[in-house]
Design brief:
The protein is mostly helical. The chain is built from nine helices and two strands; from the N terminus they run αααααααααββ. The chain has two domains: 51 residues, Arc Repressor Mutant, subunit A (Orthogonal Bundle); 143 residues, Tetracycline Repressor, domain 2. A hairpin with a 5-residue loop joins β1 and β2.
Length: 208
């Protein structure tokens, strides 16, 4: 039984990778037959695992966000550092993830979304905004961000702005250097939450 489960998980992973490769190659679209050929499996196996083409693409999107969450958004980065230090590091990791992930330009701007796929996108983005709002509330409690800031609004603005900016730069034939994008995005984050960068002495400076 365990061997069957392992084989099933392996075939599912192979199909996710094949579908992701098709989406990248075809600029946001994928056909079931092409995915099956790339994964060297039958078309029926795709329907057995995912139910439909939309289900397959939705699973690819879920997998993308699972990896993003695990390596960046849910990562316990510099737990003893102040908010500006920790979140600048998170911004750097966020940009780096998207720069090396072939699916990122597709997910951010070129994916042809069927309702099932759009529902996954909406749910994951809403989850990110909720997590970012909690992050901001903790910083407010610690006196690192002004208390009068609306956490949900600020979180939505920051994540939405970063997402749109990355979609724009990754759509260019030659994206700008990662460090340049990180610096520009971090200035945007600082302005949005009214928290100044770390001072030379290591103090978090926030504007009220």
């Amino acid at each position: 039984m365990a061997l069957v489960s392992e084989r099933s998980a392996a075939s599912r992973r192979r199909l996710l990778e094949a579908a992701a490769a098709e989406l990248v190659t075809r600029g946001g679209t994928a056909e079931v037959a092409a995915v099956a050929a790339r994964g060297v499996v039958s078309v029926g196996l795709i329907y057995r695992h995912f139910g439909s083409k939309a289900g397959l693409i939705a699973a690819v999107v879920e997998d993308f966000y699972d990896r993003l969450d695990g390596s960046v958004l849910n990562a316990d980065l510099a737990p003893d550092a102040d908010w500006p230090t920790r979140e600048r590091l998170r911004t750097r990791r966020y940009v780096a993830f998207h720069y090396v992930e072939p699916l990122a330009p597709v997910i951010l701007s070129r994916l042809r979304c069927e309702p099932e796929v759009a529902a996954v996108e909406a749910r994951r983005i809403a989850r990110h905004v909720e997590a970012a709002a909690r992050n901001i509330r903790r910083a407010q409690k610690n006196g690192e961000i002004p208390a009068d800031l609306d956490p949900e609004l600020a979180a939505a603005m920051v994540l939405g702005g970063i997402r749109q900016a990355l979609g724009a730069v990754l759509a260019r034939p030659t994206p700008p250097p990662q460090d340049t994008v990180v610096d520009d995005l971090w200035r945007f984050v600082v302005a949005a939450v009214r928290c100044a960068p770390v001072s030379p002495k290591g103090d978090a400076l926030c504007r009220s």
